[in-house]
Structures are given as structure tokens and as C-alpha cells.
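User: I'll paste a sequence; please echo it back and then give the predicted structure.

Assistant: Echoing your sequence first, then the prediction.
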Amino acid sequence: MTWYPGWDSLDSVRTWHTVFEISGIAILALLVGAEILAFQYGQRKDELTAIAESSAETKRKSDADAARRTLECCKSALAQPTKR
């Protein structure tokens, strides 16, 4: 491992050790932060999905009721005797 920078110097090794140790802690903190944000966005996604599904179900029922009323109207119009 002699090609690592400062591998043969005690002061340099101490410095690099500190740099990499602090870097590791910082990266771990970023990972934890990213996981917290992913969890929160996942919860929000579930809430919005439930709202969208509810809205789609309401629209489907409304469309079905409108189609049923139209069909009843057409049936009653066909059932009336024609005038001559």
C-alpha cells in the first residue's frame, strides 16, 4: 500500500485517518437523512394515492349514475306509444 498518499509519514497518516473518519460519519449522516426523507415521501405518496383512488371511485359512480339515468330515459322514450 505504499502508493497511498502519506503512507510512510506518521503525521500524514494521522491526518488522513481523521479525514476519512470524519468523511465516513458525514456520509452516514447523509444516508440517515436520505432515508428519513424517503420515508416521509413514501407516506405522502400513500396519502395521495388514497385520495386519487377515492376521487376516481366517486367519478366512476357519478358516470355510472349518469349512464343509468340516460338508459332509463331512453327506455321510457321507446316504451311510449307513437302518435300517428
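The first helix runs from residue 10 to 79. The chain has a mean pLDDT of 91.
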